[in-house]
Amino acid sequence: MLVTIGQIIHQAMTIYSFFIIAYILMSWFPNARESSFGQFIGRIVEPYLEPFRKFIPPFAMIDFSPIVAIIVLRLAMNGVRAIFGF
Length: 86
Fold this sequence. Notes:
Elements: H1 2-26, H2 36-55, H3 65-84
Transmembrane segments: 12-29, 55-76
Keywords: Membrane, Transmembrane, Transmembrane helix
Protein name: Cell division protein
């Protein structure tokens, strides 16, 4: 039972990391973030990225905070795998 819960949490975190990557890639295309899909992903991803942007300023017009956010999310995923033992 606990393994199943851990797998569901891990899968949800994996999907969330794909949303973050999609949000990053949308910045390369004009008006992609203004589309309904872009706004949907923005509402999901921005609350998680906001604390990282407060502490990690852009460097040479490049925002590295999503990369750090993905690394932290991956570490949390490893923690879920260790706690739930799968």
